[in-house]
Amino acid sequence: MYNLVIKDLKLGIQPIMFVLPFLMGLLMLIPSWIYFIVLLYFCWITVPNMFGNYKTHNDLMFTTMMPVTKKDMVKARVSVIVILEILHVGAAMIFGLIHDLVYSNLNITYLFFAPTMGFWGLSMVMLAIFNIVFIPMYYKTAYKYGGALASAIIAAMLFAGIVQWLGIQIPSMFDIFNVTVADHIGFHASILAAGIVIFAAFTLIAYRIAEKRFLKVEPL
C-alpha cells in the first residue's frame, strides 16, 4: 500500500500542490477574515487538480494492471487525501499561531471566527463532511469526479456558512469564539477533540463505503 501512496503522490499531484497549503496559510495573517476559506482552497483547487490529473493519465486502468487489490487502491487514495488535508490544516494552524503572536497586543474586532482551537475543531468537521460526501460518490465509478466534487464542496460550504452565521447571530456563541476565548479554553479544546474524532470517523466510514462500491466497478 505504501508504494501505491507514493505513486499517487507523484503522478496525481503537481509539486505546487505541496506548496499551496503554505501559500494559502498566509491568508491566516489577514486580521478578522473568513478563515474557513483558507481550508476550502483544498476543496476548490487541490482536489480538482489531483483527480483531474488521475483522469488525464488514465490512472485507474494503469493501477488495475498492477499486482494490487482494489482494497489497497482505495486505501491508498484515501490516505493521500488525508495527508493533503492534514498538510493544509497544519500549515493553516502554523500561520494561525503567528497571527496570534502578531496581533496579540492589538485590539482586533472579529466579525467571523478567530483562529482558536474551537475554530480548528469546526474546520475538521467541515473536512469530514467533504470526505464522507466526496469519497463514496467518487467510487461509484472511480473515474468521474465532477458530480461528487461539486456535491462535497456544496456540503462543506453549507456547514461552514451555517456555523459561521450562527456564530454571528448568537451573541453567547460570538463571545465564546471571539471575545472571551481565554475563559472557555476547556470548551474550545473539547470542540477540537470532537472535530478530530468526527474527522477520523467520517473518513473511515467513507473509506468503507468506497471500498464496497469499488469492488463492483469494472474498469474499462
Keywords:
220 residues, mainly alpha, 9 helices, 75% helix, elongated
Write up what this structure looks like.
- Helices cover 75% and strands 0% of the residues.
- Helix 2 packs parallel to helix 5, helix 3 runs antiparallel to helix 7 (146-169) and helix 5 (70-103) packs antiparallel against helix 9.
- The protein has helices at 2-12, 16-25, 36-56, 59-64, 70-103, 117-138, 146-169, 171-178, 185-214.
- It starts with a helix and ends in a 6-residue tail after the last helix.
- The chain is elongated, with a radius of gyration of 19 Å.
- The model has no long low-confidence stretch (mean pLDDT 92).
- It is mainly alpha-helical and 220 residues long.
Write the layout of secondary structure elements.
Elements: H1 2-12, H2 16-25, H3 36-56, H4 59-64, H5 70-103, H6 117-138, H7 146-169, H8 171-178, H9 185-214
Helix pairs in contact: 1-5, 2-3, 2-5, 3-5, 3-7, 5-6, 5-9, 6-7, 6-9, 7-8
Overall outline: elongated
Helix content: over 70%
Query: What about the largest sheet?
Result: none
Multimeric organization: single chain
Poorly predicted residue ranges: none
Global Rg: 19 Å
Succession of helices and strands: HHHHHHHHH
Work out the helix count. 9
> On the 0-100 scale, what is the average pLDDT?
92
- Quick one: how many beta strands? 0
How much β-strand is present in the residues? under 5%
Based on secondary structure, the structural category is: mainly alpha
Distance, first to last CA: 23 Å
